[in-house]
Fold these 2 entries.
Entry 1:
Amino acid sequence: LAAIKPDAKHVDAQNAAPTAANIKSGLVVHTSVTGAGTLTVPTGALMEAAFPGLSVGESISFIYINDGTQTVTLTGATGTTAVAATTVATLQAREVIFVKTATDAFDVYAF
């Protein structure tokens, strides 16, 4: 069996704000440093533009890895609502799922 290796986006900073293109790659690795940080997802409009044809109720996802030394909190932006205050501890990973709820609007979950 061959493994599928996504084209990872690496962020080395306290806070990370991956682009929709980074999310499309399937993997975001965040080396969190210098105190608790945030993972701010793109706006609903940017997600809509990056994933044309996505219907209400459909979803897309990516893997987020916090390989740094700080806890990170997932936050939404305009049109993207973090359904729960999700934290990602040091050396942990989450699958982040965007569920389209309307034009330019997504609920965001992390498991």
Entry 2:
Amino acid sequence: GKYRDNDFEMVKEAALKKGAENVRFYKGKCNEILPSFSNSQFCFAHLNCDTYLSNKYCIKFLKDRMVKGGMIYFSGYYGKYTFGETEAVNKLIGRDNITKTGEIGGYWIKQ
């Protein structure tokens, strides 16, 4: 994709410099990383998957593991080139359950 040349360590270091000490970073594909968290609950997840299948997998995995009041943020929701993300979110969560954050991006909060 467009950002395939990003360096994992560079991104991690930049985030840590901005104060993300309590954030854990994982490199890999969703279907490789997420199964190791099958017994976990989440209060926040930031998805930047872009494609339909990746978002579908992540949503199905995370939705029931979110704590009440937990948020999933979709950075490409309604993006010009991320129609797969928008389609997955609308099908699996529902357009009316998403709060848009501007031209692109949106979030869902578990009730």
